[in-house]
Design brief:
There is one protein chain. It is globular and about 55 Å long. It is built from ten helices and 14 strands. The chain starts with a strand and ends with a helix. Helices cover about 35% and strands about 25% of the residues. The strands form three sheets. Strands 1, 2, 3, 4, 5, 6 and 7 form a seven-stranded mixed sheet that branches. With about 280 residues, it is α/β, with parallel strands linked by helices.
């Protein structure tokens, strides 16, 4: 049985290669070649929740389950912790256990990078990042891998963590990464806007978005979360990873649908449908 640490997962998944792998995965999903039931949720210990996500790709002999725990009250350890288990499909034998935090961050960032590669303007040079956690780090790395990003404008609510994040990212990417005092400052000159937060309310004002921007929202994983304002989504051409998933749990779409702002038909395509032509 393989035991893969965070460092080993990171070494196995260079961002450029992972972005291309994500395109293949999106295409297989939209072609009906993947079994990926909606994630199930199990509340525990008051505010904590466990998320269970199984998946199987028809072309492989394995299936996997990702288990994520979210404990908002954690102080001396991460709020979000994840582990991925891989099983042999024929025998049901556990074949690998790997660090899910690193895998999730890289996979999520690569998914955003794939969307930017397929959908963002080729002349995009300014990236706005809302958030300063591990998902934000992977998101910046991914977008910088597919576009010639010259400046990254970052806003986060925790200023000391934001300043440290900016210093870390300047050592990682060639773009000039700067901290912004508010979301409007970050977004108003951006060609690509990336939200990686757990915010229950929109993270930037609709008026700050310039026409032609590409927006990547990765944080809204419950119906109560809404990173992108309904006014922005209403004006956008909406592309999702999974229609079924977003219509079950993504507040960015469910809140305005419930309000009558638009219907589910506002979703233009899945990323995999674009991959598949």
């Amino acid at each position: 049985m393989l035991l893969l640490s965070a460092a080993q997962v990171r070494a196995a998944l260079p961002m450029h290669e992972t972005i291309e792998a994500m395109k293949v995965a999106f295409g297989a999903f939209s072609a009906g070649q993947v079994a990926a039931p909606l994630r199930s949720r199990m509340p525990f210990d008051g505010s904590g929740v466990a998320l269970l996500m199984p998946a199987n790709l028809a072309a492989t002999d394995d299936f996997s389950v990702k288990i994520v725990t979210v404990n908002p009250g954690n102080v001396d350890r991460p709020v979000v912790q994840a582990t991925v288990l891989v099983f042999d499909e024929t025998t049901g034998t556990l074949t690998a256990v790997m660090d899910g935090n690193t895998l999730t961050a890289i996979r999520t960032g690569a998914g955003g990078g794939a969307s930017a590669d397929m959908l963002a303007r080729p002349d995009s040079h300014v990236l706005a990042m809302l958030g300063s956690g591990v998902q934000a780090r992977a998101g910046i790395e991914a977008v910088c891998a597919v576009r010639d990003i010259e400046q990254v404008r970052v806003f986060g609510r925790n200023r000391p963590r934001l300043d440290q994040f900016v210093a870390d990212m300047n050592a990682l990417v060639t773009a000039d990464v700067i901290a912004c005092d508010d979301a409007t400052e970050a977004v108003q000159t951006a060609d690509i806007i990336y939200t990686a937060t757990d915010s229950p309310t929109p993270t930037f004002p609709a008026a700050a978005v310039q026409p032609g921007s590409h927006i990547i929202g990765v944080g809204s994983y419950t119906p109560a979360m809404q990173e992108v304002a309904a006014a922005v989504v209403r004006q956008a051409r909406v592309v999702v990873d999974s229609r079924e998933a977003v219509l079950a749990e993504a507040g960015d779409l469910l809140v305005p649908i419930a309000d009558g702002t638009f219907t589910a038909d506002h979703i233009w395509a899945e990323l995999g449908e674009i991959v598949n032509g």
